Predict the 3D structure of the following.
Amino acid sequence: GAEPDVMCIAKGMGAGFPLGGCLATREAAKGLTFGAHGSTYGGNPLGMAVGIAAFDLMTSPGFLEEINRTAGALTQGLASLADRHSDIVEEIRGKGLLRGLKLNIAPKGVQLAARERKLLVGTASDNVVRLAPPLIISEAHVREAIAALDDSLAAVKSAERAA
């Protein structure tokens, strides 16, 4: 229920292009006079054109519904992974398409195993595998990613047993 006075945004705003923005309430914006703030991601004509195109896409009919459907498939797939690998997956974190698998082991081995399977994932903290797919990901891509993560988790467990 909290509403910010000022919010800095980026990432999805440019659909991958470096672009950022600063949103503020009318009251908070009174302190943001011309030249008082700046951004390495703001104010250039190309960036603004990309931002407008990204906004048009994100507000097109059915776009958010498709993302929600795909995020639902990701949720189900990750829950299935957590069940199959409950010995190392402690928790599924996040919302929508931005997710994390909290592990009871260091995440680097899973990250490297996933890369061998052509899946790029990040790590966060000392025990989280981070998934941050693009908004254009399809349910077929989600199935491929879940299969690669399943294989990666199994490979890491197998390697740990052999060690």
